[in-house]
Amino acid sequence: MKHGILYFVSGVAAEDLSGLRRTALGDVVSDVVDPEDLAIAVIDQGPSGVRGTLFCVSPERGVAVEDFGFHVDRQTWKETAGGIWVGWHDDYKVNPVDLVRRSCPATDFQRVAFADGSHWEIPLLRDPIVEISGRQLLELDPSAHSTSLRTTHYRDESGAWKFDVEAQYSELFAASRNWWQWLVEATENGSVDFGFAEVFEYAIQVINLKYRYPQALHDATAGRLLDSGVVSEVLMVSCGWSHARQLLQKKSLRARL
Description:
This protein is of the alpha+beta class.
C-alpha cells in the first residue's frame, strides 16, 4: 500500500467516481477507469470543519491507498481556492512517480528538472522538425509543426491531408502556438511583455496532461516544485522551442566545420 495526495471538496457530497467527475476536481480523476483505484468517502467534518468529499487516487493501479482518511494529527492540509483542500501524510514527499496518470494524450516527452531536484516528463505539444536552414526555422508557420498529442486526420477540399488535435486538447495546443510565436518575437526584438500568471497557468496545464497536477496541488505546495526557471523550461519544451534551439545550434556547428 502507498500514500497519495488527498483532496477534500468542502460542502460537496460525491459518493462515487461518477459523482466526483461532476465536481470542481473532476479532472483529477478524468483518466481513472477502475473504481478500485479510487479511495473516496463523504465525511461529516474535514479540514474545513464542515461536511464534504475526501478522496485519493491510488499511486499504483490495483494497489490500495494506505491509511486513507482525515487524520489531522499526522497529515498536512492546505486550503486552496474554491473550497478545495489538498493534503498529504507528514512523512510523504510529493513526487512525479506517484502522480502519473493512467493514460496520457501525448506520446513524446522531454525530462525537465523541477525545483526540488525531481525529474518530470514534459509533453511535446508541438515540434518544428523540418529540413530547413538557419533562421528560417524561427519563421516557419506553426501550422507546419508536428505534435505528439492525439489527432484526427482528414483530407480537405483540395485532397491534401490535414490534422486536428482532439477537441479537448485544442485550446492548449493553440496556446502552445501563441507561446511559440511569443518566443520568436522575443528573439527578434530582445524582450516582449507577458502575463506572469498566464505562463504559470499554461505550464500547469501542460504538466497536468501526464501527471495529476491540478492548479490546487500547485497552490498547496506553494511553488516548491515549480519556480520561474522551471516554468520557463516547461514553456520552451512544450511549444517546441527547446528542440528548435538544438536544431539551430547543430546547423550553426555544421556550418563552421
